[in-house]
């Protein structure tokens, strides 16, 4: 807002009054230059209309269809008059259905700021979160919300998304960033995606961050608190830090309704007791759309704080947000169960959570701005996020709950507990309910248990009863009573309501003073709801115009019957009583169901219900007593009820009587029965004598034992105490707060524990105490300091130890301007809060840097990069705005946008993901194409980048869809057509016209006749074949038959006749061998059956004579007769007579076997030696080898594997050698684990060498140690490591760190440097900068001068304020109490001597003892100090404290260490001794972030070096990489950087990572099933595809398609086991080790079988490209298309492969594939993460995303081992569509301020 003066609403009021107009108090409306417009026809129509009338279309309003946000730049931004002009004619456009200029609405945050709010105090402890765990004896905790009970059942909010609608959230807060969800966040005020709050000195925009921490602060991160739903995703909408309009609210309420589950709002209209306001038309429609279509039509959950107007006597029924049936209105209670002072009461409140009450009550601890925490969050603002978090736990237990289910569960499970309210009542359905607390305190454990078994309630019916329009006068001090007999719409089944949920009363009243009215509604069951109470400050004369009051108090009751509306007028003295009010009309809207909502559940009853066991025998038709419930009665008396409405007394005669309250001396049990207390008790909680709460007259309550006694026992005293309580600025007293009680007296050092009824020891830090814990001390023990109300051993932040004479001293709070301090006063600060700088011990407001400068971490202005106009850091990528000549592009200011972006409004925006370059957003504005960001090739066509060109175009190398030649329909190039248009035919790749004979019609001409026809030369006509099964024929015969028929002698037959077989190649019938009757082939041994006289044997038909064998030592001669062999032969084939003893292979008998064989005496045969053997004694005993082979262990080998040849025999190597040459110790390779070095095998490599596989290789030059890839890790002496090489001098931009022995990069400000910090520069990168103490600044600071020779700022002499040189005589002006003498020196000027000062009277007074010079009497007013003291700011100390060093022994001054040092020996960054907490030691410096190639070791707080293959890492090992150096590829599942990817992975040159191949590919070149390079056994490779030879569900066991069924867990596979799956059933996921695993989170799978112990986190796995351990990275918008393509390819290949196999192997039977369940399957490219137990995966212990489901708890303390470079996790979502309903403008009273 402009700071200049402008007339405002107050001026208008003055003018109006001066003119004498009598008007109510001025509340002028502020019109903005924004409009909400409803335009039918879509975005293009809206854009055209906006342009026509000079508007700018800012886009659709949230998720509201056809509603657009128009902005008019030439209209006044904020005006009290609505805008007029040419642009207002837009309302006359036919397409414009509705338009509204937006007005500013006042909205306030519902927290409370106490009078003293120390925003710097921080005591964030888990033990202090009293509202989560009820174990605090000090504060006597009575009941809690059972949050830990829900946690123990495993519910922490996982996968539930909660968004805080507020002033933004600090998304990088240490407690929030882990669960931050960018998709659930938006900045409506700034119209961008970042919800970060706006920072200022008051920290007013802390509200949203505080609410977010309550919901989802991370657990176990050693920071601040634990959120109630600490695993939920948290988002924020920044919408309250600016003008709040109807459109702003609608945008916020409709943000991402399919992604966000719960919206939490802790704001509303002014809680001033006089405002009546609610959501306007757009916000109402956003609510309705969210309920109708949000969360996939289950309904968005809207949680709302009920309001903080209690002190203003406000009533939340006048708040249209909390009063809506669509919101869950949340009330607050203090820890004690008392009503907080700020609480509003109304009948629309549904439930309650904790907050605080009075000043002394404990408040809510939560996250706060600037990465801090607070323990002072309060108001209903604190309660609503708690409720949202508890609902998140219930949604995790059952994500299918609808918005009404959630409200039902809250009603059923909330409990009154210890909440103190005067109006608790039980309605006719048995629910306890109150106007203060709704149905009571939320119970998280009960909610999740109810959610686990919940069945959706029946559909909601809405019964709008007819209005009562009888006008009634409302007279002062009179009651107007109107009775309406409701039917519940019994005549309309779709609207019939029997069982109630919400009841809405629409009412119109005129009245001279609205605040005097109170309104009650009584249900037919007698439950009274106060719809409105008197409002002291509501002077409005407007009354109510169709206002909707809502009550939940009738929940579960019957709808039909008499409803009574009562209006009472309590006249105040502020109005004229002459003008009465009037009730003009009222009507009922009943919401509920026509059947019992829990009829599908077990017979569960509300917690407070009870019924009698006896059942009436006879029905009673008369009226029942008022204390009877809806179940009726047996008679008219209270003792004849079947069920009691409230409570009952049971008498000795076994009769019962219903009563509204239990009488004195009785207590109520869980079954609504009034039971008798012990005889001495006045009131009690049980029947025993030790369960009294008050005593009868004459007796006293003994504290601890809770018994009533006549006299106090020893050790007790009678307490009649009166306790004074101070609440803010109002004090009041509560007399006899304790009543007459016997209080126990405990010894010092002990306290009385009321629960255990004994005195127990105090905390060791306490000398005396009031309870347990260090916070309950009243006096501290020795060695401890009293700090406010705690005893501490050392001072906390914001405190200092004052010098006292006592031993233990006293802790004092620092001055409010300091964050930390060393002493009293504002000039002893040692550190400041964010937004302030420390200067000379004082905290001053931070420097505001000029344009072109940024504020560094230690609050100094530095120059931006020359391209930036404004920036957040020194780099070129740190720009936040640009000069007019440049375009803003994602942190850079460029002359033109990069590829993939387009320029608009001086910014570069992302093109559509299909475009390489574009002119605007959307897929139709591309100007060039290439591969899109998902790797899909795209081709340019008419402004689009298409993956497939349309018909008539081809894919050109220039990535264009270029036109095919004329008359060509399909082509592959401009000169190569594949298919021609009608009337043309192909000739050599070109289309030529068909030329036909004269008189013929060319439409049917053919170059050659098509199938099933033949050409008749005489008529030039294609005639059909005579045989209908013939495909190719001529006039006389058929040549080729259709499938299933075979050619036999020119005809097509369905089977070949006997004596013929089917030739598969010719598909014809061919004759069998002459001996065969039937056969399967042409050969003599292909017979299937034989002719008569032949016998079938081994496929051959033989005559009988051929079957008989000759006896031993005989053979069959040519005549078929048996003839005798030679006497030497045992078997023979002829009658040879040679005289030999051994049978050779040539069937001859020899006395001596030839070379290469040996004589086997057992078989009398010459048998072969082993292969390559020339002479042997047996098959395995070679004696001599053939030439070229060597004898080794009786076998001939080509080369000696573990030896060397000598004389044709292998001699053995030394034991450690795997191979050798020449002699046994000259090794060529080594046995494992030995390594080869200089032909010798060693157990480890020498220095300067590294182990690579089985040998030691030399490291690079001057390298002392290197890694397994030969990359240097440590250099020789006098060399420095840079880019994995050892250099003797570091390049420009780096400095040589001698301690680390490496080159470390300079800060971005430095061109050259001598350290890593921004104050270590030797030369500045920006030529405009000047250097001061090593820091590059825009200009020289005060007390320095510019040395132009070195372009350096040098300090003036200590005596000078400003100077022209470094000499004492160069002073231009002097410091305080000095003046310049004639020589230019600045001398002390004081009329008083040393050690004294001049007081106000002009007298000289002595300085404080240690001061040498001073300005006053205090010890903190010194200018210099006496020995041995040192000057610290303005105080003299004996030694410099931690963080300071004594710079000058003469001046004796304590100078501050470098900002990164905790202790030091000098100012420079390399002079640190120890580092500040949060800083790492790197070399001699302390750094907040380690330099590149290093990681911060959190155990040692030292920067350790990564493995040289890593660019970033989280540990030293080469398996701890986060990304890789050049020429290496990242394998995320191993956390390793590799030079080449392992088998079944491919390198992605774009992402520099190894990605998993498709499961069917053995090796591949890209992702997907179409990029295979080789296949597994059983697959056939075809053009990049691995095609299974079997049908789906089968796998091949050999090259021939012998198919067997997959494991039952697989839908398809490449092997028999459960580890060989390639496709999984629906709702299962393919893990990296090849298994199909069920999804975690449900107790059973989709087939009702129990899930296995190992399961997949499917929500984290679906859609991701590379799963990782702990963090999932999602690839945007590709999942659906990839799944579709993969499924199609697999189905086509499976069907095609099946047909192919069937036609070629018809004789082999195939198994039938198992049926697959409907629903398909999901294809995932997973690479996995570490499994929890070993698997048989080929990659060892790795299987993502397998997790243990049983007995495992997530360890939130685990180190994150992978995080994306920008920390972003992408999650997919869908937008819902809106209906075309008209917007109802019934209630649009614009005089109300916006809530």
TrEMBL record:
The active site is at residues 166, 207, 381. SMART domains: EGF, FU. CDD domains: FU, Peptidases_S8_Protein_convertases_Kexins_Furin-like. Keywords: Cleavage on pair of basic residues, Glycoprotein, Hydrolase, Membrane, Protease, Repeat, Serine protease, Signal, Transmembrane, Transmembrane helix, Zymogen. GO terms for biological process: protein processing. One of its GO terms (cellular component) is trans-Golgi network. InterPro entries: EGF (IPR000742), Furin_repeat (IPR006212), Galactose-bd-like_sf (IPR008979), GF_recep_IV (IPR032778), Growth_fac_rcpt_cys_sf (IPR009030), Kexin/furin (IPR034182), P_dom (IPR002884), Peptidase_S8/S53_dom (IPR000209). SUPFAM superfamilies: Galactose-binding domain-like, Growth factor receptor domain, Protease propeptides/inhibitors, Subtilisin-like. This is Proprotein convertase subtilisin/kexin type 5b. The lineage of its organism: Eukaryota, Metazoa, Chordata, Craniata, Vertebrata.
